[in-house]
Amino acid sequence: MIGLLDTSVVIAANKPGESPPDLSDFDEVLISSLTFAELEFGLRPGRGAPISSGRRQRLDEIRDRFGPGLPFDAPCLAALRRLLAHIAANGGDPRVDRFDRMIAATALAHAATLVTRDQSDSPLFTPLIPTTLR
Q1: Three-class HEC string of 40-89
Q2: Does domain 2-133 correspond to CATH entry 3.40.50.1010?
Q3: I need a surface site. Which of 1, 116, 117, 131 has the fewest CB within 10 A?
Q4: CA 64 remoteness from chain centre
Q5: Separation of alpha carbons 29 and 23, rounded Å
Q6: Which residues of the chain carry a pLDDT beneath 50?
């Protein structure tokens, strides 16, 4: 079984004092290239603010562990269309949390379980994407 880590899990796993999630259920654990984009945005909190060397170091460690991440490609885009239609049909707003939707679509395209800490998204993705909270 493949697990695709949501950005929320990656951030929490790298915070001091947080215990890493139990991922022993998965044969393979992957990350999306979109998570790297979200983490890059987090390095730049505002104009003139210094980039935290600790954050940069953690990002480099994540890249070393996971490589470039799964790309958001044409199959992911097709999965995103399907996912957004599902969300809209079930009363959700497909325009919010765009990165979360795109990462979920990446999981859908790769038949992976989405591993997240965000409880609010899970019901929107079911039954299209297996989701687990960690």
Answers
A1: HHHHCCCCCCCCCHHHHHHHHHHHHHHCCCECCCHHHHHHHHHHHHHHHH
A2: yes
A3: 1
A4: 17
A5: 8
A6: none
Bridge partners of 114? 4, 131
Mean of all residue pLDDT scores within the chain: 86
Break the chain into its structural domains and give their ranges.
2-133
Residue pair 83/93 in contact (Cβ under 8 Å)? The answer is no
Burial of 131 (0-12, 13-18, 19+ CB in 10 A): buried
Structure tokens that stand for 116 in this block: 């997240």
Is residue 109 a contact partner of residue 78, using CB atoms and an 8 Å limit? yes
Both tokens of 11, joined, read 């951030």
- Please tell me the pTM assigned to this model: 0.87
**Judging by beta carbons within 10 Å of its beta carbon (0-12, 13-18, 19+), is residue 109 exposed, middle or buried?**
buried
Q: Please give the Cα distance from 79 to 106 (Å, whole number).
A: 7
